[in-house]
TrEMBL record:
Residues 713-733, 1102-1192 are annotated as: Disordered. Residues 401-628 form the DNA2/NAM7 helicase helicase domain. The gene is 2E4.130. This is Regulator of nonsense transcripts 1-like. Residues 713-722 have a biased composition (Basic and acidic residues). Keywords: ATP-binding, Helicase, Hydrolase, Nucleotide-binding.
């Protein structure tokens, strides 16, 4: 502590107290560790002291409420030995799913609210308060380890608060099993997880165990609790190491409540203040009749309860207490029927025939391996080609598939099980459209069979939004008739939209609004058109008869459909698609699961069981995975459910042959694509994008070819409560006002330079920061313009894209160490795993590498990241690599410097980008645009305009590099044919760029690029309409097809130009210092390049001077000391030239140009452009541009 005071100048420094930052940080860490160990030891000692008094459990009426926070409540239990036991109760366990909590910071109290209104009478829990409360404390039976070694070995099982004076109301909160829902099944056990990949039986058993606990966790948080009632005629018996209780109960149930098999039961055995709680499930519930007790109608049941494995030890240990006349009472918790069905389906996986071809396990029997070798493809090559070349239906506006997409499509049609990994922007939806259309065209019985006899395709997605997106694309972009496509929503959504089907005790989903133009494809809408009016009239008399008629109409509609679209969970829970126990109303030939990485593995597998022959799984496990809503589930089960199905599949090399990775992305600018490709996709992503014209943003991008920026903002973070929070997790959200201010400044700069608000999106991991950014935007740019900018969390906007993405990471100063920050390089010095985990906790959810990947890959043209570089780098290796990469590209700036540059920048007010740019603007190419692959359009302009940087391909001589000769060399400005059919300057290409080979349509990939500046032998070849400058070793394409070395070309030879054959009028050979780009292609094949006309282009890379006369050495001066005048008044002076004495720089007067003299060596294009920009000359789009293209 003295060292800390000296460090912050709070005390006079002593010599031995002047520690370095690293030594001080180490001392603080040791002190914190000692304090934590001491506190934990004292807690364990108090727990052990209480163990002998908790036999079996105890009701405490003098408990005290300690500290109250937004997420936890401390309950203090007094003791005769003066050892106070402190137990934590999560606020989420108090609320469940039926009420929300409102935390007041000033009074440090929590008020519980049910729905939108407070409870009647209101319940407030205040700090250091002695309320009228009775709580039950007991041992935690869900802990598989010795009780004295666990912090949660003793817990609060139930809390009962009395209402205000004068009222008889009381509030009971069963917090014990809400914190540990494993009490109803078995202790968390994944010790046999490694065996799951070997045997299907073990796979089924483990996932059934996990899913059972997940279902119970959701049930205990619901409101489906029955009143507690006495147990009559209890009879205990044991079988197979499991205890059973047979008894009779009389219980008053609500209108829609009933007791069913597999519902949960909580049995209480009480003697005085001693209580033992046992939990289990109902094995059998038999209704015996109704009667009235004290004027209240009650239902009588004869039930059998099976105790859980977790409670088996408690029953064995306290057998005397249970049998010694303890008062028995019980209450029940209803479980949704369809959730029970999912558990039964998981247990029945080994007997599910459609999964025999799905490699859920890597170890295969000899018979299975032999069957796989002898298995014929589902379709022959001829059938696949027929389905692709002559499909029954068409995909409108499709530009064709690339090689990997075509490979994935053919594999999906021929193999019974395939996986497709689609990184961001690689065209997964386009592939799915083609796959579904081809699968429909290749279905058996395409000719000569009626639609109702035809096999169907089931298309699943993890969410309703994703399923509706697929439905919209299929209906809008394909020629499949609308009545052949059916969308199946859940029963709860159907009832909200007018369905007459009554489905009780089923899982309810949050409200979802069906879009108007998609409603006609919904199953319930089609059924309403088919259902006979007489069937609707029987609703008031017989609901069961209506349900039977409704189900028959559903089956009729589905059998007439080619394509059925639904969610993964709804595919096996909806009774129209699966009755359970192997009964299916309709059959499906193929199952296509989209965005499989966002669904849990049980959902993917159970959805796949509906397919009889073909399963295609599409997704990207490097992006955000499934979200488990049951946060009270144990962490091991949560981790298992959050691991995507695709991720586990590709971990085994044997399954990689079934997977195809799409590697051509059509979304991101190359500079934005570079880091995600390297960090998350093993540098496999290629660029296949050609972007439209966009305004220049000189104030944002520090570098010409980099369209990304990281702003180091060290403003502190703060806790804030989200006004719309409905859970305890949302109340601890974070915000950073300093980062929000920078976000507003960036958005304002984009809007003022002509960007549309619809092209901008702001992403952040925290909801409170989302609200803070919205407030800052409204005050900075106005409410109208701020409303057009999309602001949301990364999870909510996964799958979307925008031209410009702004990221706010919020995390700044660690919550535990407010005054000491970590070193940026701390993560890279071989830190221990414990230290890495501790630092990762300091940045919370931001340390999730999948979240970072999703956030970085939403941008198409520009990416701005805002965060504390030091804190983020010390907490995540991925952030360290990202910031190191940006710093190496000089794209890392500090907050103050960036804001100062924005204030000092001056640019004219640009017009709105609501209308597309003109053809004149599209024909302008600049170094910035070249780097971002802005294409020159093929529509020529008739108006003769300024020279600027117009590219004319009508006067170019072709030059070909030979194959098999290693790297090719090109002068700066040489144009190469890109994969999109457009031309790209050689100085703009990068590793991964794809180039078309000469004389064929083969695509070559740039493997390496190096620039050399040295003295080279050059050859200047001229014709009447064309001119080219190459090195002497290049080969020129002659009119006869011969490829002749440039040094051997002579006057009057006939060469091939873009306008046809032409005679050579002049040849100059000389030496000069120039930039030569050495490019290596893979595979090594010839590449044909062209050179733009010098009379039209000078910014594309040739020397800014003319060539030297024959026999002379130019060294950058060329043909004399004079340059061509430009046609734009005031723009004839080029960078690198200085006016002669007595000559003004006003440009041309009366059509006569003034003479400038060149000073110094040749200037490269990048330097020329920088000087041109520094002179403050704006680019004016030329009016006479002709076709040309620049692509990746």
């Amino acid at each position: 502590m003295r060292a800390l005071k000296c460090h912050f100048n709070l005390a006079s420094p002593s010599r031995h107290m002047l520690l370095t930052k690293g030594e001080l940080e180490e001392a603080v860490a040791r002190a914190n560790a000692r304090t934590s160990a001491k506190n934990f030891g004292l807690h364990i000692f108090r727990v052990i002291s209480w163990m002998k008094e908790l036999v079996p459990g105890r009701r405490v009426s003098d408990a005290l409420i300690g500290a109250v926070g937004p997420s936890y409540i401390n309950v203090l239990i007094p003791s005769p030995c003066a050892n106070i036991l402190e137990l934590k109760v999560p606020v989420a366990a108090l609320c469940g799913d039926i009420c929300a909590s409102d935390y007041d910071v000033t009074t440090q109290s929590i008020r519980l609210a049910s729905g939108a209104s407070p409870m009647e009478p209101g319940l407030a829990i205040r700090t250091w308060h002695f309320p009228s409360m009775v709580c039950t404390i007991a041992r935690n039976c869900a802990q598989p380890i010795p009780h004295h070694a666990a912090a949660n070995s003793v817990l609060v099982s139930e809390m009962i608060f009395e209402g205000k004076q004068g009222t008889t109301a009381s509030f009971s909160f069963p917090v014990g099993h809400r914190m540990f829902p494993e009490m109803f099944s078995s202790c968390p056990d994944l010790t046999e997880w490694a065996l799951m990949d070997r045997r299907l039986e073990k796979y089924s058993e483990l996932w059934a165990r996990v899913r059972t606990c997940q279902v119970h966790a959701g049930a205990v948080n619901s409101s489906l609790y029955t009143p507690s009632t006495r147990v009559h005629d209890p009879k205990w018996h044991a079988a197979d190491a499991t205890w059973y209780l047979q008894c009779k109960v009389e219980i008053a149930l609500a209108e829609h409540q009933w007791l069913h098999d597999e519902d949960l039961a909580v049995l209480s055995c009480q003697q005085a203040d001693r209580i033992l709680e046992l939990r289990g499930v109902i094995c059998q519930a038999r209704f015996t009749g109704k009667r009235k007790t004290y004027g209240e109608a009650v239902q009588a049941f004869s039930i059998e309860i099976k105790l859980s494995q977790a409670c088996h030890g408690l029953r064995e240990t306290h057998a005397d207490f249970v049998m010694a006349g303890a008062t028995l009472s019980v209450y029940f918790i209803a479980v949704a029927r369809n959730e029970k069905k999912s558990i039964r389906m998981l247990k029945a996986l080994p007997e599910t025939l459609p999964l025999q071809g799905m490699p859920l396990t890597s170890t295969r029997t000899v018979m299975q391996q032999k069957r796989e070798l002898e298995m014929r493809p589902l379709l022959t090559k001829a059938q696949v080609n027929l389905a692709l070349d002559k499909p029954e239906y068409q995909v409108e506006g499709c530009k064709g598939l690339n090689d990997k997409q075509l490979l994935a499509l053919k594999r999906g049609l021929q193999m019974p099980f395939t996986m497709v990994q689609g990184p961001p922007g690689t065209g997964k939806t386009s592939l799915l459209q083609q796959l579904i259309v081809a699968a429909v065209s290749a279905m058996p019985g395409r000719h000569g069979r009626q639609p109702k006899d035809r096999d169907r395709i089931l298309v699943c997605a993890p969410s309703n939004q994703a399923a509706d997106h697929l439905l919209d694309r299929l209906v809008r972009d394909t020629t499949i008739p609308a009545h052949y496509v059916t969308r199946v929503y859940s029963r709860s959504i159907e009832q909200e939209n007018g369905s007459n089907y009554s489905s009780q005790n089923s899982r309810s989903e949050r409200r979802f609004d069906i879009q108007n133009h998609l409603e006609e494809h919904a199953l319930h809408y089609k059924v309403s058109q088919v259902l006979h009016p007489s069937s609707r009239q029987c609703q008031s008399t017989d609901q069961k008869a209506l349900n039977r008629a409704y189900e028959m109409a559903e089956e009729k509609v589905l059998k007439q459909s080619y394509i059925v679209i639904t969610t993964c969970g709804n595919s096996y829970l909806h009774t129209a698609l699966s009755h359970g126990d192997g009964l299916r109303p309709v059959s499906f030939h193929t199952a296509v699961i989209d965005e499989a990485a966002q669904a849990s593995e049980p959902d993917v597998v159970l959805a796949a069981t509906l397919a009889a022959h073909r399963i295609v799984v599409v997704g990207d496990h490097q992006q955000l995975g499934p979200v488990v809503p049951e946060r009270n589930l144990c962490s091991a089960y949560v981790m298992a459910l959050e691991t995507p199905f695709l991720e586990r599949m590709v971990q085994n090399p044997r399954r990689l042959r079934l997977s195809t990775m799409l590697d051509v992305q059509y979304r991101m600018h190359p500079s934005i694509r570079s880091f995600p490709s390297t960090q998350f996709y093993e540098s496999k992503l290629l660029d296949g994008v050609s972007m439209d014209f966009r305004p220049k943003l000189r104030c944002l991008w520090p570098q010409e070819k980099e369209h990304r920026l990281f702003i180091d903002c060290r403003s502190p973070q703060s806790k804030d409560r989200n006004p719309s929070a409905q859970s305890a997790q949302s109340m601890t959200s974070l915000k950073n006002s300093g980062e929000a201010e920078v976000v507003a400044s960036v958005c304002k700069a984009l809007l003022e330079q002509g960007c549309s608000g619809k092209d901008i999106a702001v992403l952040t991991p925290y909801t409170s920061q989302q609200h803070e950014i919205c407030a800052q935007l409204e005050s900075s740019v106005g409410r109208g313009r701020a409303s057009s900018i999309l602001v949301g969390t990364v999870h909510a906007l996964q799958g979307s894209e925008r031209e410009y993405i702004i990221l706010s990471f919020v995390r700044s100063v660690s919550e535990d160490m407010q005054d000491i920050t970590h070193s940026t390089e701390a993560f890279s010095k071989g830190d221990s795993a414990a230290l890495r985990e501790l630092r990762a906790q300091n940045i919370g959810i931001v340390s999730n590498r999948k979240l970072l990947n999703v956030a970085l890959t939403r941008a198409k043209y520009g990416l701005v990241c805002i965060g504390n570089a030091e804190v983020l780098s010390s907490g995540s290796k991925d952030f360290l690599d990202l910031i190191t990469s940006l710093d190496g590209c000089r794209c890392l700036v500090d907050r103050q410097g960036f804001l100062k540059r924005l204030r000092e920048s001056r640019w004219p007010k640009s017009k709105s980008r609501g209308s597309p740019p003109t053809a004149t603007a599209l024909a302008t190419i600049r170094p910035e645009d070249s780097a971002s692959q802005v294409g020159l359009r093929s529509s020529p302009a008739n108006d003769a305009g300024t020279e600027c940087s117009v590219l004319s391909l009508s006067s170019s001589i072709s030059v070909v590099s030979e194959a098999g000769r290693g790297p090719k060399c090109y002068l700066r400005g040489t144009l190469l044919p890109a994969a999109s059919g457009m031309y790209v300057p050689v100085e703009s290409i990068d590793t991964g760029t794809r180039i078309i080979a000469a004389g064929s349509s083969d695509l070559l990939q740039v493997a390496d690029v190096h620039c050399h500046r040295d003295e080279f032998d050059l050859v200047d070849i001229q014709t009447e309409s064309a001119w080219i400058l190459v090195t002497s070793t290049h080969r020129i394409v002659m009119e006869c097809g011969e490829r002749r070395q440039a040094s051997r070309v002579k006057e009057r030879d006939l060469v091939q130009t873009s306008g046809g054959g032409a005679s050579v009028t002049c040849v100059h050979r000389y030496s000069a210092y120039v930039d030569v780009f050495q490019v290596a292609f893979h595979p090594d094949q010839p590449v044909e390049a062209i050179w733009p006309s010098p009379h039209r282009v000078w910014t594309c890379g040739h020397l800014p001077t003319q060539a030297a006369p024959p026999g002379g050495k130019a060294y950058g001066k060329g043909r004399g000391d004079r340059h061509r005048p430009t046609r734009r008044s005031g723009q004839n002076r080029r960078p690198g030239f200085r006016n002669e004495p007595g000559t003004s720089s006003g440009g041309t007067r009366g059509g006569t140009s003034h003479t400038d003299s060149y000073q110094g060596d040749a200037v490269s294009v990048a330097e020329t452009f920088d000087q041109f920009e520094a002179a403050g000359n704006p680019w004016v789009p030329p009016a006479g541009a002709q076709s040309g293209s620049v692509a990746d």
